[in-house]
Amino acid sequence: MKIFAVIVSILSLFGCILIPFLSFFNVVSFETYLRWFNIASLFWFLSAPIWLIPNLFKKTAEKVK
Predict the structure, then answer these.
(1) Domain enclosing residue 29, as ranges
(2) pTM higher than 0.85 for the full model?
(3) What are the 10-residue block averages of pLDDT along the chain, 65 residues in total?
(4) 62 in a domain, yes or no?
């Protein structure tokens, strides 16, 4: 799961960097830029914490008796 999250987050970060340049040089329309930038940003913010924050899904609290 962690490797998959790394791949998804790196690809989405690459998309967040690439799509503004494509829009600036009129390769894609502004509407396409908005759509793909929002999708790439969503995938980045959903996948990056999985591998950037250590022990995110591990139980650290002690059981209450």
Answers:
(1) 2-52
(2) no
(3) 89 95 96 96 92 73 52
(4) no
